[in-house]
Write a structure and sequence with these properties.
This protein is an alpha+beta fold. It has four domains: 183 residues, no CATH class; 170 residues, no CATH class; 273 residues, no CATH class; 156 residues, no CATH class. Helices cover 55% and strands 14% of the residues. Strands 3-4-9-6-8-7 form a six-stranded mixed barrel. The longest helix has 44 residues. It is elongated, with a radius of gyration of 34 Å. The two termini are 42 Å apart.
Length: 829
């Protein structure tokens, strides 16, 4: 029967073209994302940058520390403390030792990622003066030649303040950092923490002096001391986080569409299968023939799909780089390495299996038809719901509703985890696609009800055509359902969660005004002091730090905020569940409820500079995962520069009663001018904060939605072309009944609009399940918040889907009307 299958494909290749296109695109998606993920498991070693010419680098580290489990900027306790005086003394005894420091230092209007170093370490990164001389005084610096010129006076912003320096010399710029070099004494004043040591003594003696107190980096390991190591890790973590989500959603969608398309292609050929049964073909032979066709089509399409996927992997990588998700150096290159061949082979097998599975059910069903019933079975469609599909549909509906209820009642915090939540949105939409044949009848009658009294037979013919061909209608409506349903669910979840976060932040901030970074990573404490000196002004500028707590033989790291406790009470409206902020003083702490600390208890903590403190929990407030920070008294401010960069991410400002608003706001604006801080209202702060916090979530969900929608757009056009091109007999019957070519086209357009309407209604029903669960979860997490969605975008997607459905109908109908057979039929009228 394989020979017959091959002959069938040669004779009717046009009928299988749509199936091949769908399968090629589905396999290409799976292959591209598989190659991207596997390539990330075997990344090339990055060469050292800052210490490329250093023989050995001493870097304090924690051997159990895994940076992949922490946000960018979070340091282990040994790394936060830096090199101790004792370790510096021991290493210096082995030979020449150069102290390295790395801290925030940005020229006014300079790049946001500028960093300061002592001039002594410049030579190890290959820096050489191109003009001028090295810095010798406390107010001299060396900068890249594209930032300033020798002799020029420039403003430099650091965590220690905003000062004016003279450029004593320049160096050639490099592509891996934007550095500002200070004299050694000035660098030590700005950043007391020693990040690393360059040891130039005998390596064996250095190892003996260091012992287990730090890590000694040599060779390619020196790259661990580069700032780009942490930046690359963050971007790669974002990629690793995003791609599986995209792969699961896009892969599931493509496999579903491909399987549905192939099954529909087999169903379209039931007449041929029926005729084979009447001439003596056994059920086994029929099944073997159909499986042979599926194997041939699956092999051809999967081979083309893997080739396209290899090319598409780099396109996907380029898209992620443009979105600032993946690092600019990340590339996917064709090779015979297992990271490329394994996912391609897997995608190829998936394509073949999807083709075989897509054809198996229809082949089994066609093989069971008795010869006497063959012609009747081939001519009349049924409900489209086989027992197996009904079972899967019931499980899908139950699972979708149950999952929605679980999110709404049991685990509302699930919506805060894009990795989990995005995949859960798939279930109701796919379940609706599976049970679509059951809904065809009621929806067709409902949508055609307004046209029940219309003149002419078109409305009646359209309704009856859909009702008597429910399997075909369900197959053609499925891509539209998936397109609109997934787009609405994903985009509504993204926008509603963002709006809820805005609402929560707006309610939490009690101040009328605020400061936000303006082209800088944060606000200098000196700028905060300037504002604090203005009469009638209260300001709270939390400094981000890390709170270390001992858990048996290891340390746990949590975010903390060092803040003026008196100003905190006036500027922040925290939801207190235990204790009171009135009890917050220099020896106490306000902790989030997620930490499990009780008000009134004492907790022993370690700060970034190694200081140990025992603090009383004065208050416990309600916090969400990801926003749970402890508020510490201002006396711990020096430790913030060790644990992080010593900058405030925002500052909250209130005015004392009776203070002249115009005078105070003008003084604040003048005080922060040119300091890298921007004075703004609370609402403007909320808008800027939400935009920053939502960026990665929006990129994840919107990029996933774009890939799914584009694939589904192609599937819509593909499926409608398949469905309509096989209806020459219907077209000929209409012509025999006296319909003009214009009336025939009108009938098919009306039918495609009805099919699109059915798909959109089912999508709205499935999305309603997701949105109801989302609303209930948001209500528990944030209080009363509205459901927000980009309705114009969703309407546009639905409109494009409908237009594609019409195009996929009109094109084959117009071609068929020009065929000689149909023209002869029309001539017999």
């Amino acid at each position: 029967m394989l020979g017959i299958a091959l002959q069938t494909l040669r004779a009717r290749w046009v009928s299988f073209l749509g199936t091949i296109v769908a399968l090629v695109l589905g396999v290409a998606q799976v292959a591209a994302m598989g190659v991207l993920l596997m390539t990330m498991l075997d990344l090339p070693d990055r060469p050292p940058e800052r210490f490329a010419q250093a023989s050995a680098v001493v870097l304090p580290t924690d051997p159990d520390w895994d940076p992949a489990h922490h946000d960018l900027g979070v340091r282990s306790l040994p790394e936060a403390e830096g090199v101790s005086k004792d370790l510096l003394s021991r290493v210096s005894a082995t030979g020449e030792t150069v102290v390295d420091r790395a801290f925030y230092a940005q020229l006014h209007d300079g790049p946001k990622n500028q960093v300061g170093h002592p001039w002594a370490v410049a030579r190890f990164g290959g820096y050489k003066l191109t003009n001028g001389r090295q810095p010798t005084g406390d107010r001299e610096i060396v900068v890249p030649s594209d930032q300033a010129h020798t002799g020029e006076k420039v403003t430099v912003m650091t965590a220690a303040g905003v000062s004016t320096y003279t450029v004593s010399g320049t160096v050639a710029p490099v592509d891996w950092e934007n550095a500002v070099f200070f004299g050694d004494a000035e660098a030590a004043r700005i950043s007391p923490r020693i990040q690393a040591l360059v040891a130039l003594g005998p390596i064996d003696q250095v190892r003996g002096a260091v012992g287990k107190d730090a890590e000694i980096l040599t060779g390619k390991d020196r790259h661990k001391a580069d700032a780009s190591e942490a930046e690359d890790r963050e971007t790669l973590d974002n990629t690793i986080t995003l791609v599986p989500v995209m792969a699961s959603v896009a892969g599931t969608t493509s496999v579903f569409v491909v399987a549905s398309t192939f099954a529909f292609a087999v169903i379209q050929r039931r007449r041929e299968v029926a005729l084979l049964r009447t001439v003596g073909a056994t059920p086994k032979q029929v099944r073997r023939m159909v499986r042979g066709e599926a194997l041939l089509v699956g092999t051809l399409a999967s081979a083309l799909g893997t080739a396209l996927g290899l090319y598409g992997a780099q396109l996907l990588t380029d898209m992620l780089i443009d979105l600032d998700i993946s690092p600019p150096w990340f590339r996917v290159r064709p090779s015979l390495h297992w990271t490329v061949t394994a996912p391609l082979a897997g995608a190829f097998l998936v394509g073949v299996l999807v083709a075989l599975c897509g054809a198996a059910a229809a082949a089994h069903r066609a093989g069971r038809v008795r010869p006497v019933e063959a012609l009747r079975e081939a001519a009349v469609d049924d409900s489209g719901m086989t027992p197996g599909r009904l079972l899967i549909g019931a499980l899908g509906v139950g699972g979708g509703v149950g999952l929605a209820a679980w999110i709404a009642v049991g685990k509302p915090a699930t919506i805060l985890s894009p990795n989990t939540y995005v995949t859960e949105l798939l279930v109701p939409v796919l379940a609706a696609a599976v049970i679509a044949p059951l809904a065809i009848g009621p929806l067709a009658r409902l949508l055609m009800w307004p046209f029940r009294n219309s003149a002419g037979p078109t409305a009646m013919l359209v309704r009856e055509s859909v009702l008597t061909s429910r399997r075909r209608t369900a197959a053609t409506a499925a891509p539209i359902l998936l397109t609109v349903g997934l787009a609405l669910s994903l985009l509504a979840a993204t926008d509603s969660l963002g709006a809820a976060r805005d609402h929560g932040l707006r309610n939490q901030v009690a101040s009328d005004y605020a400061l936000a970074p303006d082209g800088t990573p944060g606000i200098s404490p000196e700028v905060v002091d300037r504002v604090k000196k203005i009469d009638g002004v209260q300001i709270a500028a939390p400094l981000l730090t890390t709170v270390y707590t001992r858990d048996e033989d290891r340390y746990d790291e949590n975010d903390g905020m060092v803040v003026d406790t008196s100003a905190l009470k006036r500027t922040m409206d925290l939801t207190i569940t235990e204790g009171s902020l009135d009890k917050l003083d220099d020896n106490s702490i306000a902790a989030p409820d997620l930490w499990g600390w009780d008000a009134g208890t004492t907790q022993k903590i370690l700060l970034g500079d190694g200081e140990e403190a025992t603090l009383k929990v004065a208050a416990v407030y309600k916090a969400m995962r990801g926003e749970d920070v402890a508020y510490l008294p201002e006396r711990f401010a020096p430790s913030a520069a060790y644990a992080r960069d010593g900058l405030a991410r925002r500052a909250y400002i209130t005015l004392d009663p009776g203070t002249d608003k115009a005078t105070a706001t003008a003084a604040i604006a003048k005080a922060v001018q040119g300091t890298g801080a921007r004075f703004l209202t609370r609402d403007a702060l909320v808008a800027s904060e939400s935009a920053y916090a939502r960026h990665l979530i929006e990129v994840r969900q919107r990029s996933t939605a774009v890939i799914v929608v584009l694939f589904c757009f192609i599937a819509i056009l593909n499926t409608l072309l398949m469905a309509t091109s096989d209806r020459r007999r219907d077209l000929a019957v209409l012509r025999l009944a006296g319909a003009t070519p214009k009336q025939v086209v009108r009938f098919f357009v009306a039918e495609s609009l009805l099919v699109a309407g059915i798909g959109i209604v089912l999508a709205l029903v499935a999305s309603a399940v997701n949105i109801a669960a989302l609303w209930a979860a948001l209500l528990q997490l944030f209080g009363t918040t509205p459901i927000v969605a980009p309705w114009l975008v969703v309407v546009g997607i639905a409109a494009v889907s409908t237009v594609l459905a019409v195009i996929g109908t009109v094109l084959p109908v117009s071609a068929a009307l020009r065929s000689r057979i149909v023209q002869l039929v029309g001539a017999r009228e």
